[in-house]
Amino acid sequence: MKERNEHAQFERIYQDTADMLFRFCFVKVSDREVALDLTQEAFTRLYETMQIGKVIDHPRAWLFKISRNLVIDWYRKKKPISLEQMMEQGGEAIEPADKDGREHIELSSEAKLVIKAFEKLGEEFREVLYLRYVEDLEPKEIARMLGLTANLVSVRISRGMEELRKIMRSSDN
Fold first, then answer.
1. Three-state DSSP state, 61
2. Which of 11, 49, 53, 173 is the most exposed place for a label (fewest CB within 10 A)?
3. Which residues contact 27 (CB under 8 A, 6 or more apart)?
């Protein structure tokens, strides 16, 4: 009976988190296959941890933390050029494709400006802003994920938004 409960709990966590976790990995590595592998590895680790009976109070935060560490390990081993690095070096961004890979999503010029401004932010701001506004995570969850206090995360979100506004204003001129 306990095994069924764990399996049902894992299924629920997977359904609620898989797409979000994949997007997180994909944004970090800019390679669909690698992002899928990293996402799968994170869920495999979750399943194995659950199987040995360890209780995970906040599985979504735990998965993001594991994924973040997997991305870091991947960069240490592989060191390919990421989308962020490519754009910092002046390369053109690859437009994301739809499910069929046939149709490209066009970003408005305003969205492109925001993305360029976002890339100018420091990593500590980019990461918390991405998790807060793209993945819609609460500061407490981001704090658990990054090993920070909720207060520090809130401060970084606030300062990151302020810095983003400054960058946007200076690009208007």
1. helix
2. 173
3. 83, 130, 134
Q: Which amino acid is at 33?
A: E
pLDDT tens digit sequence for 69-109: 998 888 888 654 555 555 555 544 444 444 433 333 344 45
Query: What angle do helix axes 139-146 and 59-78 make, rounded to 10 degrees?
Result: 50
Which single residue is written with the structure tokens 């807060």?
A: 132
Q: Which domains does the chain have, with CATH numbers?
A: 1-80 (1.10.1740), 106-173 (1.10.10.10)
CA distance 147 to 151: 12
CA atoms within 13 A on the CB side of 7: 4
